[in-house]
Amino acid sequence: MRLNGMVAIITGGASGMGRDTALLFAKEGASVVVGDVDLDGGASLIAEVEAAGGRAAFQRTDVSIEADVAALVALAESKYGKLDTIFNNAGIEQPVTPSDQISEELFERVIDINLKGCFFGCKHALPALLRNGGGTIVNNSSVSAFANVGGNLSYAASKGGIMSMTRVIAIEYAARNIRCNAINPGVIDTSMNRRNLDLAVDKEAVEQKWRSITPLGRMGTGNEIGEAVLFLASKQSSFVTGIGLVIDGGRIAT
């Protein structure tokens, strides 16, 4: 088991990439602490992990509220005695909107959850990781931090901020045995993308566009993301810090 004996926090773990990563972490021996606003999804996840013989805990967590994130970290330490890694995964999409029409309310909501939520996760995980003698942080950024097709200014800004935050923490805490990296997913088959698809007038055209901008010709899977997160969270990547691992089927290479 690649994570045997480790304790991991995953935000936004009740669905999508977070859920697939939580299931994989538990399968690989980690005790998983999941935070999400989706109570039903969280309960379902815990039941699935425990049915498979794993260990997991869930706590309702709104990552845009600092006290919620601090409480999630406290739960991991109180229940399992330590923290080894955190996957700051929680995030929301931005509806495709011309940049001059984005409301302040929309911009702030995306930044609060995606960027500020990641900041709170890092801020409160760092002392716990230091108490444990070190550990790892994995942040969920996006290919939108580097390349996008427009109409997503607040989302791209939040993900670019996550990449900058990742590098700052990687440099600042390297000497204290903490590694911080990010993943940059492309088009992944998640509930978030399915919601976007449901809003489209021509769903086939949207799916064709997703395939056409991805050289491998398909959407990625949550499990493929989970494997990348596991690599960065574990000792397999012991000499890797400060990077943004691109998992996009070749999109950026074009």
Task: Characterize the structure shown.
It is built from 8 helices and 7 strands; from the N terminus they run E-H-E-H-E-H-E-H-E-H-E-H-H-H-E. The protein is of the alpha/beta class. Helix 1 (16-27) packs across helix 8 (222-233), helix 3 (66-80) runs parallel beside helix 4 and helix 4 runs parallel beside helix 5 (153-173). Helices cover 47% and strands 15% of the residues. Strands 3-2-1-4-5-6-7 form a 7-stranded parallel sheet, sandwiched between helices.
The total of helices stands at 8
Q: How is the largest sheet built, in terms of strand order?
A: 3-2-1-4-5-6-7
Provide the gyration radius in Å: 17 Å
Backbone structural class? alpha/beta
Strand content: 15-25%
Share of residues in helices: 40-55%
Order of helices and strands: EHEHEHEHEHEHHHE
Query: Rough shape?
Result: globular
Largest sheet: 7 strands, parallel
Number of DSSP strands? 7
**For the residues shown, what is the average pLDDT?**
93
Alpha-carbon distance between the two ends: 36 Å
Low-confidence stretches: none
